[in-house]
Design goal:
heterodimer, A: alpha/beta, Peroxisomal Thiolase, Chain A, domain 1, two-stranded antiparallel ribbon, B: mainly beta, OB fold (Dihydrolipoamide Acetyltransferase, E2P), about 10% helix, binds zinc ion, ChsH2_C (chain B)
Chain lengths: ~375, ~140
Amino acid sequence: MAGTGLKDATAIVGIGQTAFARQLPEDERTLACRAVLAALDDAGIAPGEVDALASYTMEETDEVELAKAVGLGDLTFFSKVGFGGGGSCATVAHLAAAIAAGQADVGVAWRSRKRGSGPRPWTGTAVQLPTPGQWTRPFGLLRPADEIAMLARRYMHEYGATRDHLFNVALACRNRANQNPAAIMYDRPLTREMYMTSRWISEPLCLYDNCLETDGALACVVVSAERARDCRRRPVYVHSAAQGLPAQHHGMVNYWNDDPLTGPAWTAARHLWKHADLTPEDVDVAQIYDAFTALVPLSLEGYGFCGRGEGGAFTEQGALEIGGRLPLNTGGGGLSEAYVHGFNLINEGVRQLRGTSTAQVPGAATCLVTAGEGVPTSALLLRS
Amino acid sequence: MLTPVTDADGAPFWEYAAQGELRVQTCADCGEPRFPPRPCCPHCQSFAGEWRPVSGRGRVWSYVVPHPPLLPDYAEQAPYNVIVVELADAPRIRLVGNLVTHAGAPLGSFDPDRVRIGTRVRVVFSGGLPQWVLA
Ligand SMILES: [Zn+2]
């Protein structure tokens, strides 16, 4: 198997999730167990068959606790991916690599989070401020929103992108959430006036440019393509996978890079397309990491859907809506479905290729899923 | 207010700032300045570094205006500007800071609506922190 690559060697055969809400009564560990069991049930695979796990370094429920609680088998592979929301797709990529290399047979990736009701990392004042905090936090650049707004301002200045472009992103996500009963913003439409008159968080980013603070957990099950044929659901193949940490990158504060507006998406994309039979033109639907609206135009450029500087203009004329060139975040994304470090984008990608999305793109056969831009990232190219 | 919690690589920057000097870590072998500070030169892999003074003049590369919710000390001063300054004599070196009306003025002293990308600024110091005023 070695050297043959990941292309279509593995498939996602089960997805599971808890409810999403500002506040859920159960703790993160319990939510993690529920999501993992739901994903295994969806796949029709018994917990005792699981021998691989992958999650984020920021995940609080560790492998030992999870495996013990839900009755997993002997684990022969476990992995955690750093950099917060940059890790989502890499959890699946690590499992796919492990399974393709024969290190395991049944992998589960998961993320459980109580960000809606729990503490937010930037509120810590007593903790030591690590590098690069010493270079930013004393000056009041405190939150991820502030750090990304700095890049967004420069991007808008350099390329003429506007708040209307960012609104197009927020609107597409909200419109899809309005179709998704599981989304936090299911029954809450967004208008341009609401967007333009909302309060600032960090200018040029307003309230609706920011993701939702959410409690919830998700999981998915990865097996070999061969095994996938015998599972309960139609397999969704991992066609290509990549991580991206560019030379001289600085997570969140990439303005210290020589070329700050080409972030990790560019690096991940080069590897992703190099190992794919597909090109950006072949992508039917995209789930692009949207902790902040401004990450989307940067990602559209990085993953090659348009030229450099054209990410804002790409969002015009309904391109991101159903029926448009690239329907975006069809479950509502981090902006309007739930912000669970981007894992909901993976599960929604699977639903699209199963044909079971609440905002189904007719005939969707290929889906790009990305993890956080602005931090070391990852991406998956899924196909049915 | 948050004060810088320095690491071994960054400490000299803050020691010079406390003396009212802006210095940037520079490779002693190839002369390439680098920021943030680190043990080794990414261009020539030399571990020989020195801290060279820079003119303290620059231009605003980008800026944001944070609004609450913020940490209490910062919320009290919001909305305030945070700028990234590109140094005139080392354009690849960009420093986060605040554009204020004069040395020692609070974060919110310079009207955020008057900040522009490209605005020329120069460094001043207050309480060991660099600040920026109109050049
Ligand atoms: Zn050097």
